[in-house]
Amino acid sequence: MNFGSLDAGDLGEGIVATLLYFVVGAGVLALGFLVLDMLTPGSLRRQVYVDHRPNATVLLVGNHLSLTLIVATAIVTSSDSLAQGLVDSAVYGLVGVALHALALRVLDAVVPGHLRAIVNEPTLSPAAWAVAASLLAIGVVNAAALS
How do residues 46-57 score in pLDDT, each as one tens digit? Predict the structure, then answer.
């Protein structure tokens, strides 16, 4: 049985590339959270993790899933060259975050009662699920546009 050969240099380069892409991806996701936090009333982190607002949590989940699709697509479709691939991932990830923020502002303008009011409601609202689904759909379209 032939198992082939092992090239430790390729393995080491792959590990370094994985770590660098992870750092870029996590940075873009963190920026996406900060943008969402700026676009919602009050501190989203406080609303979710301290005040336990269910609608804020649903919005955050939809946003995270959406941004994850965008960032993953930016990484997967980036250049095969490591340096160019990292730049591609960061730039297209940031473009994706900007488009996502714009879409969130449009949602806020067209949702009856406004998104800000939904986020602050103390009980779980079906509207929060609808907004989360809209964010996820926007993320899929955004990711497809990046590919």
Answer: 899 999 999 999
Residues 6 or more apart in contact with residue 120 via CB below 8 angstroms: 41, 42, 47, 53, 55, 56
- Tell me the C-alpha distance between 24 and 83, whole Å: 12
pTM: 0.83
How many residues in the chain? 147
Amino acid at 136: L
Q: Residue 66: count other Cβ atoms within 10 Å of its Cβ.
A: 27
Q: Quote the CA–CA distance of 11 and 81 in Å, as a whole number.
A: 16
Coil, strand or helix: which one is 79? Answer: coil
**Distance between CA 88 and CA 98 in Å, rounded?**
15
Whether the CB-CB separation of 73 and 97 falls below 8 Å is answered with no
